[in-house]
Design a protein that fits this description.
Helix content is 29%, strand content 25%. By secondary structure, it is of the alpha+beta class. A 5-stranded mixed sheet has the order 1-2-7-5-6, with helices on one face. The longest helix is centred in the middle third of the chain and has 22 residues. Pfam families: YjgF_endoribonc (PF14588).
Length: 157
């Protein structure tokens, strides 16, 4: 059975694909190598701004961080679209997600936060969105973001 086109699936979910968030340092948003596209770490920018800042378990709740991880995943899809000249339907499967969570010392729910990205990718791609994953607690992230997500996808030739 053919998968629903990605942009149609996003519309069904009520999600607009966000514009590409420009890099905040010296790197490119994503790179195509063979049949894999890997993104740089994506922060939860909305219209060029971080709506939430701080450490999860302190200034940022777990629920807020989950939502921020979803935004990061959408930004990663925008970066992949940039690398693929807009053709997200070339994605065969989501391969790997790495999530970094700026964590207060006593916060241990990094995996639940990164579920925000994983759940979104499953919602969009179905079984093709199931992936391997790392969820890592860190002391601080760029610009005091609470979450950063990297994404790798396999594409069709």
């Amino acid at each position: 059975m053919a998968r629903i086109p990605v942009r149609q699936r996003l519309a069904e979910l009520g999600i607009d694909l966000v514009p590409l968030a420009p890099p905040v340092a010296s790197y490119i948003p994503a790179q195509l190598s063979g049949n894999v596209v890997r993104t740089s770490g994506q922060l939860p920018f909305v219209a060029g701004q971080l709506e939430v800042q701080g450490k999860v378990g302190d200034e940022v709740s777990e629920s807020q961080a989950y939502d921020q991880a979803r935004i990061c995943a959408l930004n990663a899809l925008a970066a992949i679209a940039w690398a693929l000249d807009g053709d997200l339907d070339r994605i065969v499967s989501v391969s790997h997600v790495t999530g970094f969570v700026a964590s207060a010392p006593e916060f241990y729910g990094q995996s639940r936060v990164v579920n925000g990205a994983s759940d979104l990718l499953h919602d969009i791609f179905g079984d093709d969105g199931v992936h391997t994953r790392s969820a890592v607690g860190v002391a601080v992230l760029p610009l005091n973001a609470p979450v950063e997500i990297e994404l790798s996808v396999v594409i069709a030739d």
